[in-house]
Design a protein that fits this description.
This protein is of the alpha+beta class and 449 residues long. The chain folds into three domains: 207 residues, no CATH class; 64 residues; 162 residues, Heat Shock Protein 90 (2-Layer Sandwich), CATH 3.30.565.10. 58% of the residues lie in helices and 11% in strands. The chain has 15 helices and eleven strands. The strands form four sheets. Strands 6-8-9-11-10 form a five-stranded mixed beta sheet. A two-stranded antiparallel sheet has the order 1-2. A two-stranded antiparallel ribbon has the order 3-4. A hairpin with a 5-residue loop joins strand 10 and strand 11. Helix 3 packs antiparallel against helix 4 and helix 4 packs parallel to helix 6. The radius of gyration is 34 Å and the shape is elongated. 24% of the residues are buried.
């Protein structure tokens, strides 16, 4: 699904469906059961004391009391606010079906006018259970109705007991069974449509929120590039004068040259931030092989004490040529820089491709991602690993957002032998240049994809 130009990755869909699970709280089912208990108790008393029917009140109230005990126990455990998963909610409603069937079996079975209440639990469940659980409840309801048609205690009529024809009992069974199927299917389909609309709305809200955060980061970057331009130019002039005036054998000469080179690098970064697209410039290196593009993204971030190893895996004759897009350069550069910050000695960058996809995998030999934040990586202001350097936790968020705009899907994991691994995957057709898409043989690659 794509909303406002932003593709939601599988982890975001996982967050949405995680919120969708547990759509009913135990408190809601406890409240519904209390209503049923009160209604059953009043009905039994009226039928016995007002209408004069001789009912097995001890057994009937024992069945009703069992539900009351279950409610009291659940309430006493202070778990009423717990949101039930699909299985637990189905089990609670399955008990209600059995409880109502037990009462009806003691009071006339399908001849009891209140037999229609056997449909209530499955109707309630169809509004929040999955299709499978709703079908299981419907099957249990039909099974209970069948047993009630075959085995039940007769109603203790005051006068001659009216004998209902077997055909009438069969018709009542069929009506209740068809009603169970229709109500369950209709209620589930209507509720499912509402869930789809709610999910689409939630996805839209999530996409808009991410776009707003990215826009805020972009505005901050533009403002920083503008505001830092003047002081950086002053620093560059002073650094150049220091490098020129210091004698070659001065212990500060090397520091001055380093300061000058880092100033030049900062100016380059600010210039790239202010560019809207590299495609607007007549750059002879506008299109690069994927392996070269990955090395270009990591080149500015090399540091002493850690080695970056670039590897490729794929048919050299089919290596994709990719536009030198700033989103890819900055996104991959941030991932490589993050790996370097936590690597002990080595960072490995593997670029691979086939007819369907292109993958870049960045791994390091550092401590890896903590398990408690692994599922939330990519959120802003979340530091991915133990770091006391004061970083704001925006690096992975910016990298993921930039790369997603190019059609990439990111996966974060820890290697079996230690260290973190970030895998970036594109469909090959999403990275193909227009002239590459039209070259002979490319149609076969698309079909293979």
């Amino acid at each position: 699904m794509q909303v406002t130009g932003l593709v939601l990755d599988p982890r975001q869909w996982t967050q949405l469906f995680t919120l969708e699970r547990g759509r009913v709280s135990l408190r809601t089912l406890i409240l519904i059961r209390w209503v049923a208990i009160i209604g059953q108790s009043i009905t039994l008393l009226i039928v016995r004391m007002v209408l004069g029917f001789t009912l097995p009140l001890e057994i009937a109230f024992g069945v009703v009391g069992a539900s009351a005990v279950i409610n009291v126990v659940n309430s006493a455990q202070n778990c009423g606010s717990v949101r039930l998963d699909d299985r637990d909610a189905m089990l609670h409603l399955a008990y209600d079906i059995v409880q109502v069937a037990a009462l009806l079996g003691l009071t006339g079975g399908l001849q009891n006018p209140f037999a229609l209440l056997e449909l209530a639990p499955v109707t309630v469940g169809a509004t929040f259970l999955t299709r499978r659980s709703t079908a299981m409840l419907a099957g249990l309801t039909i099974g209970a109705i069948t047993l009630l048609g075959l085995w039940h205690e007769p109603l203790p009529w005051q006068h001659d007991f009216p004998k209902f024809p077997a055909l009438y009992i069969l018709a009542v069974w069929m009506a209740l069974s068809l009603g169970t199927l229709f109500i369950a299917a209709y209620a589930w389909s209507v509720t499912e449509e509402g869930r789809r609309i709610a999910n689409a709305y939630a996805a839209t809200q999530l996409a808009l929120a991410r776009e707003q955060r990215v826009s805020a980061v972009g505005a901050l970057a533009a403002a920083a590039a503008h505001e830092l331009g003047s002081p950086l130019a002053t620093i560059a002039v002073v650094a150049k004068e220091l490098a020129r005036d210091l004698p070659p054998d001065s212990p500060f000469a090397e520091d001055a040259r380093l300061l000058l080179s880092e100033t030049a690098r900062c100016r380059t970064i600010l210039t790239e931030l202010s560019q809207t697209s590299v495609t607007e410039h007549a750059d002879p290196f506008e299109v690069l092989p994927m392996g070269v593009l990955v090395e270009s993204a990591g080149q500015p971030h090399h540091r002493a004490g850690a080695e970056i190893v670039y590897e490729v895996d794929g048919d050299p004759g089919r290596e994709p040529s990719v536009l030198r897009r700033p989103e890819i350069l900055h996104g991959l550069g941030n991932l490589i820089q993050n790996a370097l910050q936590f690597a002990e000695q080595r960072v490995e960058v593997m670029t691979s491709w086939d007819a369907a996809s292109v993958t870049v995998e960045v791994g390091d030999d550092g401590p890896g991602f903590p398990s408690h934040v692994l599922s939330r990586l990519g959120q802003p202001y979340l530091s991915g690993r133990a770091d006391e350097s004061g970083h704001m936790g925006l690096g992975i968020f910016i990298a993921e957002t930039l790369l997603q705009r190019t059609g990439a899907v990111l996966d974060f994991a820890n290697a079996a032998n230690g260290g973190a691994v970030v895998r970036v995957t594109w469909l090959r057709r999403a990275l193909s240049r227009p002239d590459e898409a039209s070259r002979p043989g490319h149609e076969n690659e698309e079909i293979a994809a």
